[in-house]
Each structure stands twice: as C-alpha cells, then as structure tokens.
Amino acid sequence: MTFALAYLAGVLTIASSCILPVLPFVLTRVGQPFRSSTLPMLLGMALAFAAVASLAAVAGNWAIALNSHGRSVALGLVALFGLALLFPALATRLAAPLTRLGEKLTRVAGADGRTDLRPASSALLGVATGLLWTPCAGPVLGLILAGAALGGPSLATALLLFAYAAGAATALAAVLLLGNRLLSRARRSAALFEPLRRGLGLAVLASTIAIAFGFDTSVLTRLSAPATTAIEQRLLDIAMPAAPGLVTTAQAQPASKPLFSARQWLDREPLTAESVRGKVVLVNFWTYSCINCLRTLPYVRAWAEKYRDRGLVVVGVHTPEFAFEKDPANVRKAVAALGVTYPVAIDNDYAVWRAFNNRAWPARYFIDAQGRTRHHEFGEGDYAASERMIQLLLTEAGDKIEPGVAKVTAEGAQGAPDFANLRSPETYLGHARSNGFASPGGIRADAPASYEAATSPRLNQWSLTGTWSVSGEFAAAQQAGSRINHRFHARDLHLVIGRLPGSPPVRFRVTIDGAAPGSAHGADIDADGYGTIGDERLYQLVRQDGPVKARDFSIEFLDPGVRAYAFTFG
C-alpha cells in the first residue's frame, strides 16, 4: 500500500508546477522510439532521483559534495544539449565522437551488426535530469524523506523514492505520447518543425538557468497547485488513517492510568481518561524551537482561554526535534516564556506521536466528547476553520457557543509570516540535513576545521568563517569572531542557536548587506545588531519593515562556545 501511495503521489506531480523545470528535457525525446530512447531516459531520471534523494535525507559530507558536483556536471550537460538543439552544426560536432564509436562497435559486431547508441545517450540525459529535479515536497514525499532522516538509510526508503519518481515518469510518458501526435503533424512541414526544435532548445536553456539560480525551489514551490497537495493528503488519510484517538486509549487501560502514553507531564499529574470524560479535547503537537509551532501558539492559547469554561481541554504534546529540546528544564523555561498555561506532556520517546500516527510539527487533533478523533490538521494557517471545529464539537456536547472567532495578535517570532515575499526555505546547519552550503571545500564533518566565506553566494546559499566543528545536528564555533553568512529572501530571518553546556552567555552582532540592521532588526537584537545568546531556542534576528528583497545576512559571534542549528524564515 505504501509503495502504491508513493507511486500515485509521483503521478500527481504532473498537475504541479514543480514538474516544469524538467519538462523541456523530457519533451526533447518526443518523436524518438520509446524503447530505445524515451524509456531509458525516464528510467535514468527515476534511478538518479531515488539515489540522490536517499543520500540527501541522511547526507554526510561526502554525500553533500557528491550531490553538489553531480548537479554541476548535469547542468553543463543539459546546457550543451539545449545549445545543440538551437545550433545543428554544434549538434553534429558533439555527436561526432559517438558516431565514430558506433562505427567501431559495428565493425566489431560484424558486417550485419547493429549498434544503437540512443539508449545510452538517453539514459545519460535521464540521469542528468534526475540530478536536477527537485519536486515540491508534498505530504507523501515529505513523509518519505522525514522517515529516512529519522530512521536512517534503508532499501525500503530508496524503493519508495524510486516508486515516487516512477510515478512522475509515468505521467511524463503520457505527456510524450500526446507530444508524439503533435510532432507527427509538425514533421510534415519543415517550416513548422525547425522553429519547434529551436523552441525546445530555448526551453532547455531557460530551465537550466532557472535551476542554476535556484528558481526551481524558490519560485515554483510557491506556485505548486494547492489541489495537488490536497489530493495527496486525502491519499494519506485513506492509506494511513490517524490513530483512533482518546477513546481507544481510554478503553485500553483503566481510568487511573495516564490517558496518553507520555511518561512525563510538565509540573502536574498526568491526565486520565476520567479527567477528560465528556470533554472536547484539542491535542497540539509542537516543539518550542519550531517556527511554525510558535506562529500557531497564539491561536491555541486563545482557544484554551476562551473555551476553558465551556468544556474544552487543550493538551500540548511537546515532541522534540533537537536534543536540547529533550531537557524538561528547557521546556519548562520555554513554556513559561511563551505563556502556555494548559497541560504539557513531555514526549521525548515519541510514544504519543506514534500513538496518534502523527507526521508533522505542528499538528492538531480535535476529539469530541465521546472520545472520537473528528478532525486533524498539519501545519499552520486556516485558524478560523479550526475554531469553528471546536465550536461544533462543543455544541454537540450540549453547550451554546456564540458565533465568531477569537481576535489574535502576536509579536516577534510568533507573528504571522509574509508568505507573499518568502523565497527562502528552512536551512539546517548540521551535516545530516544540510543544504545550500557554499564555503570552499564543503563541510568537513565531525571535526574542527577552518572555513572561509563564499565570495559570491547565490540565493539561499550559506557559509561559515573561522574554525567550526560541524556535527550531524549543529555547527559549533570554536573561537571568537566566527561568522555565519546567508543570502536570503524573506521578511523575517530566525536562527535556532544556543551556547555550549557550561559556557557563559555568548554575545553576537548581526549585519544586513554589511551594515547594522537599524529598523529591520528582529525581536532578539537591537538596532545596532547586538544580541546575547542565553537559552538554546529560536532567535528572531531580522524583521524587515520596508520592501523585501534578497539580502546578505551575517552573524558574528563575539565569544566562543556557540551552537547553530537551523535557519527559518517568515
């Protein structure tokens, strides 16, 4: 069932704009024999994507370097291919070595020997396409990659990724069948066929440029058809339904035992089935350094306050992403700073996460007074619909609820994001999930090393300066004066950072485009860019108040002993 789900999700990518960067490469096979040209190209694409995506999910230093160099070679290859479509003389020159090789192989095979090099050349183009293809991370692909990151590399993960890519290849094959019909008409007229060939060449070059400058992820991901994600989510709900919720837990154990499988609750007795009997329950999965969780939190707090006396019980399940979030003392401090007053379960072993079959941060599960899970949501947004679901369940439980939703205002990192200007994705600094690293020489994993800043970083690339030790989860500065640079495009920039255990507070300074941030400073620094790291948490460092554009961010640590985990944007 899981493999079928991955395959169907891959087929659905044809309805998403994320397929656009590779579509010109695939369309160049229109009119070629399917078995000797089209099929090798599509198989090469699927195999290359599965291999690269498997490595990316659990990447070490060698895998990061391999992926980076492989993409560079692939970009050069498809650029040459596009130029060959534009200029027939260049195509003849490039094909000359292959032609001579074919003649030699024919002579070896004998007078009647036949040598067709199209499968090899098509497969090579397919491998290059697979190296460059970065599809939108919909729910199904996100689930596969998250499982790989948490569980490590495995044959099952690679096969799931291949099934996903094979689904996309199947959809592209259908496009080629339609293209063949159109091309058969175009070939009847040389005047029509020649412009078509040159148009494909221009499209290939345009896609190559778009991928080289990161437009395939920074722009096309935002344009992905919402309906595609919705259909994927529906497939997930059918194939992997959420756990039945509190009613199952309550029936499976006496009421005196904890209602949830969490082993620890923050500063209170565990909730029991008896304590929530007949109540509507909202279960909110979160972790305190997650920007999406923080932006959802003001609404969850407002609902807990507004409906506390109407029969709603809000439960926060704190399931950590980073190791420092497993420390109950850190969670306790964050809960107090964030104004969370409802019960919080410490889910360090992911027991509650697994019991609910949960898949993301943040996630909200709505459970009615009979203990049935009636609705669940992943991610942030659509808060009015969430509150109306709470009102519906409370009304069914016998309360009279006035219409209207809570008015919520939030500041700092909890403020609503500016999605219209968001071009930068979450960026991890530990080598296990790192992406976009641009310092010369790449990451030297798990050992102190000296790094230099990238001289001309592209959008969404970052680099280190000074001596750093990059572990799987974070990058640790070994000396004062160490810096992190990042070229980003977003209104807000956040960085999850902390100090080494036992270290004193760490001072730092932020600059934007080489100058003090001024009025564009975030909530955790002043206008001159200065701030101090005390607790390990998410720090808001930039909040632009003018036109949003690509900017060069730099943070210099004035003291040693810092750990940097991840950039997030809003």
Instruction: Find the structural class using helix and strand composition.
Output: alpha+beta
Beta-strand content bin? 15-25%
Total number of beta strands: 17
Q: State Rg.
A: 27 Å
Helix content: 40-55%
Number of domains: 3
Instruction: Report the total helices.
Output: 17
Instruction: Outline the low-pLDDT stretches.
Output: 57-67, 105-115, 216-229, 240-258
Explain this structure to me?
By secondary structure, the protein is α+β, with helices and mostly antiparallel strands. It has three domains: 2-236, no CATH class; 242-414, Glutaredoxin (3-Layer(aba) Sandwich); 419-569, Jelly Rolls. It is 43% helix and 17% strand. The chain is built from 17 helices and 17 strands. Strands 7, 8, 9, 10, 11, 12, 13, 14, 15, 16 and 17 form an eleven-stranded antiparallel β-sheet that branches. Helix 1 (2-12) packs antiparallel against helix 12 and helix 7 packs antiparallel against helix 8. It is globular and about 80 Å long.
TL;DR?
With 570 residues, the chain is of the alpha+beta class. The chain has 17 helices and 17 strands. Helix 3 (34-57) packs parallel to helix 6, helix 4 packs across helix 5 and helix 4 (61-86) crosses helix 6 (118-132).
Q: What are its keywords?
A:
570 residues; alpha+beta; Glutaredoxin; Jelly Rolls; 3 domains; eleven-stranded antiparallel sheet
